[in-house]
Amino acid sequence: MLTQKFRLGELTLNNRIVLPPMVSRLATDGGFVTGELLAHYHKRRGPGLVVVEATAISPEGKLAPLQLGAFLPQHQEGLRELAQTIQQNGTRAIVQIHHAGSHTDLEATGGRDLLSPSGIAVRQTPSRSLKEDEIYRLIHQYYIAAKRVLALGFAGIEIHAAHGYLIGQFLSPLTNKRSDSWGGSLEARAQFLKEILLRVRKLVGPDQILALRLGLEDWREGGLKIEEGLRVGKLALEWGVDLLDISFGLPGPWPQAPDEFSSLLHLSKKAKDAGLGPTIGVGEIRTAEQAQLALERGMADLVAVGRGMLADPAWARKALGQESGAINSCRLCTNCKVREGQCPAQMSCKKIGGD
Length: 355
Ligand SMILES: Cc1cc2nc3c(=O)[nH]c(=O)nc-3n(C[C@H](O)[C@H](O)[C@H](O)COP(=O)(O)O)c2cc1C
Ligand code: SF4
Fold this sequence. Notes:
Blueprint: E1 6-8, E2 11-13, E3 17-19, H1 35-43, E4 49-56, H2 76-87, E5 92-98, H3 106-109, E6 115-116, E7 128-129, H4 132-150, E8 156-161, H5 166-171, H6 186-189, H7 191-201, E9 209-215, H8 226-238, E10 243-247, H9 263-273, E11 279-282, H10 288-296, E12 302-304, H11 307-311, H12 315-319, H13 344-347
Helix pairs in contact: 1-2, 4-7
């Protein structure tokens, strides 16, 4: 099944493997594409779909100083080259656009105020509550960033609404305490997402897709419940989403997994069982056999392999039988050390810094 093509409307993916979005910290501090960043993606060629790492829609929305950006027209030149680099071998690429809200720090935002629905910090740095005109400005910034990206030959766009970043902060009752039309009921908390999706949908061409990385539940007491996440998923499909990239919401301790698959991958199964999809499932897939089994068991329609592909850039090609040799399996460190050149999977095969 891994090698099977997958159709999403008029878009055909060559196989069922996805490189999920992973901030590489290889952009410049202005958010521009670098040669190193292009090489990082070129080395990981082979998946049917690549979701390019979280790309900031505005400078104060950055989650890391060296994060990719789409908040200036000048960002387009490098992003166009990125689209060509990734897609030259038949892989299709979409770009994840992102705003961190209060889930960041002043180093990443360059000293700019952190913004959030209700001035509630996800980390330590205090944030400022958004005024209504600022909410509309942010919606417009998502729209403009999407417009810039979609004009460059990418196969679509992904909206980041997971992991406790800005859209997730609107969705969660822990971080959205607003008493106006943007807070309260689930529908009101989802209004920010709805406004973004309805606008961005209009930009998406017939051979492009609109994906949503959705945090299906918060992993914090009192946060977004799975029933609510499923409801948001259903609404998002009604608002024009073509593909649900399922993950968690506000971060916390990982729940116990019921079987050999991770609790994260099980969230995708829950979405599918609720009749939502197509989905991308992700979480601790390290071998081709695990990925194949996940598809056979109906955990997801497409399987994403994140750290596995950081550990072994040839992961997809090896799993698809296009390249020989055993996969250098990711050790699932809690704190990924690929960037620091200390990835044990790469050290064991003497390829330090080789990603
Ligand atoms: C270094 C690193 C950077 C990440 N950056 C992003 C990101 O930009 N956007 C996102 O939605 N998830 C991000 N993630 C989460 C991954 O997309 C993926 O969901 C997660 O690593 C679980 O998959 P895995 O067990 O296969 O690694 C990141 C993960 C890692 C390890
Ligand atoms: S540093 Fe650890 S988590 Fe990251 S790819 Fe290497 S083994 Fe996996």
